[in-house]
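Recall the central idea of this unit: under ordinary conditions, the amino acid sequence of a chain determines the structure it adopts. In this exercise we apply that idea directly, starting from the sequence alone.
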Amino acid sequence: MNAVQRFIRSRVLLLTASILIVAMCLSVLVQGQSQAALNRTVDQNSRGLYDVLVQAKADDNGGLMKPEIATGQGGVSFEQLDSIRRLAGTSVAAPISLVSRVTQNLEAPRLEATDYLGFNAGLAGTAGDPSATDPSKWPAAESVLSDTPKKYRLTASAVSSDGHSDQTLFKTMAEGSLGKAKLIEEQVAGGKNVRIAGPAGETGIKFPAPAGGSEHNLFNLSVALPQAPQVSESVVAVDPVSERALLGTAGDFLAPLEKAPPADARNAGAIGRHFESLFTSGIGMDQLKEGPDFLGVKLKYWAPLMSQYQQAKRSGQLTADSQAIPLIVRSGTSLDLKYSVKIEEIDASGKVTKDVGTVTRSLDKDYLPFVSKSPFSLAWPGSKDLSQLMGDTGTFSQGLYNPATWSTNFAAAPKYTDGETAGNGAVDKSATPGEWVTVNRLPDKAANGDAVDQTQRAPVDERSYRDNLETGKKLATPLAMVYGTFDAGQVKNAAGDVNRLPLGGYDPTPFTLTKDASGKDVQNTELKPSLSATGLASQSAGAITDYYGLAAARGFDQNANVIDAVRVRAKVPGSWKQAQPEVEKLANDIRDMGLQATVVAGSAREDAGISVPGYSKDDAGKESPLGTVQQSWVRQNAADAVSGSLTGTNLTLLFITLCGAALLTGASTVSYVRKRRSEAGTLRAMGWTQRKIRSWVLAEFGVGAALLAIAGTVLSLISWNLATAIVSASVVALYVGAALFAAQQLRHREVIDQEPQHDERLIAVDSPLTFANRQLSTNKFNTVSLAVAVGVFGAAVGGLIALLIDIPRAAGASALGGLAAASITLPSIILGVSGVAVGLLLTMVTGRFELQAKRQYLGTLQAMGWNPDMLGQVRFFENAMVGAVALPLGVVGALGIGLLLAPYAALWAAVAGLVAVLCWIPIATKVVR
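Accordingly, the structure predicted from this sequence is:
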């Protein structure tokens, strides 16, 4: 009988080798799928809108890049920008800079109560407006006010919130009587005059200056409310052509900015006079609604431009050097500012007789910086807007009528210092607090020149985390000229998710409060920007302009190094890995210009924890921290780190799974060879030498080794992976080593294991426990072999569990790491479970070598009268004793593997090894029946 026949006849060798080959095939297949999913995930999410970020000087943030790349510090010249664009490897080079901070007085808040008097030809004046309602279809008069004036108390208040706590900015009351208006016809020279007047005895309601009073019109009673707090925004500058090339179709909102006039054609006075001349010479209704054409752009928001121009001219703010700044403004705001009016009906003594209601309005998605009309126009309960009967009056509404104040104070990006680094690579930061900025002030004088009582409201100090910006010598009040709007949310979506790179100020990057000042967890509280826009939290820039606009706002009259950053896309297609050589070459070419070039291809967003000191102060001036906030930064080289780390985890899982199975196969092999000793003795008696006997046995193992080698070679060729070849070679080596060790056990011994024949060596059998102890003691070799197998099983299980637990840490803290970890989690679990199942199966095979003998002595015990419970206890105690011997090996082995491969999960590895051995005991007990 040849070696192949003997190998097949042995069944056990065939079974163990077959199990190992199947395990190799399945494991390599699963690992290959896992690796493919990992590579696909990394490749698809590791190249953002640009590949290289160019700055004059970049902060060292430990491999983390903060989102505020438009810092306002400049440093890059336009000559250097042109040089970057001329490089052969450059596809797009888009500059960006922070311009300044802009503070805007909102239009005076008003409370509108429906007091509609019906159609009157002398007052309506609808002729010529095709959108106006035909006079015959106007509804009958209606009002929410009574014919006889009633006394009311109005309480106006404004509340701002940073998302964590609310702050009441002011609370002001005013009282007076209001009633339904009436039409009065008066005879005047040349005919009759119709006017609107309040009812007899109406006093109106007047809040303290600078607020106005109350007045009746054709549709409403309007009460002027206390002035709202000023609102500040930031402005950034871009090159609209290159910015559109960077963003693709998502940047189409910048198209109007490309048509802005050149620098020498932006004089604010000249542009204002041009629009005044349009109205002097006559302009059609349709043109007014679409917006007058200005160099190919329909200026929809011409009315705020005109009113702000005229106001600035009247107040003397406009000078010969003032420039018009073309802007694309943000649609909506995340500033949390609520304006409320509580309306109460009172009697002569001031006692409340009826709560009419409270009306509230917030700045929201309809708010437009520089142009919004009536952001705080509140409606009396039960009122309706009937002004549309006059036609589309919104087209001609002035909107914000005061020019904004442009300032470079406290406008720069925040600065941070590094803190501790977590196990997954996440780095804690600490914000650097700056000065206090005072907001919520009232103007010194009202519009009519009266002094304003400053005690109406208390100014509010907000902590600034920003520095001042550099300015030029030619500062003059600019005039905002709104060309269009943009949606910050859509821009953020266009920038991507996992591979999102900061665009530079107009893509919002919010802060989320995670821990309060005492260190307690806070449930997902997003911080809101401050009124002054100088705090840590900021929203998208309120407006985008071009670099001529930056020069006008900052007062530069010649080229200066004002570019904060240049986002460069390389002229190379493909994934980050394919593009990496060309991107590195491009970055080196840029570095040769003396600039800082950071390769961001292969980066991913990562949440940074930031501690915020000195956030607020009490009346005594004592400062208090906010706590810890979280913001999305950019982890450089995340793709390399994630790919390398998780590839290593994948291969280690494969190695432990297969090499653990190979070790268990070796243990089975050693135990099995003990059964061949009788054959070896017969052959020895026939004259065979020890060497010939070993060769005879090794030939059988050679068949198994050859099968494993063939399987390993085929798998290595299919996967075309060096790691698979190394793991396959390790499995074959372990199998061959076990075979050689097993063959050594066939050497001739004078003493053969058998039951002792002398009474003094016999163990008294008086219980299932003592019988199990006797059986194991008299078959020490098999007992130790089985215990080693179980211990190896426990250690392998511990190692597998440790690696699975360690996957999130190994993946890192970046979003790419989380996504990649999710992509390999299921295959890794399948690989780990298959490893556990194979290991358990091989230990069962090892335990079955003495199965026939066990069944014989259990049958004998049954014949002696032992009941099934006692026989079950024998089986249990035998396996429990083996488990007790294997337990230290399993736990210590699992702990050692855990410390070597996954230190952060080493204790879990030890626990898993312990549980694996303990679980093996009842499972093995069920094998023998």
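The longest helix spans residues 638-673.
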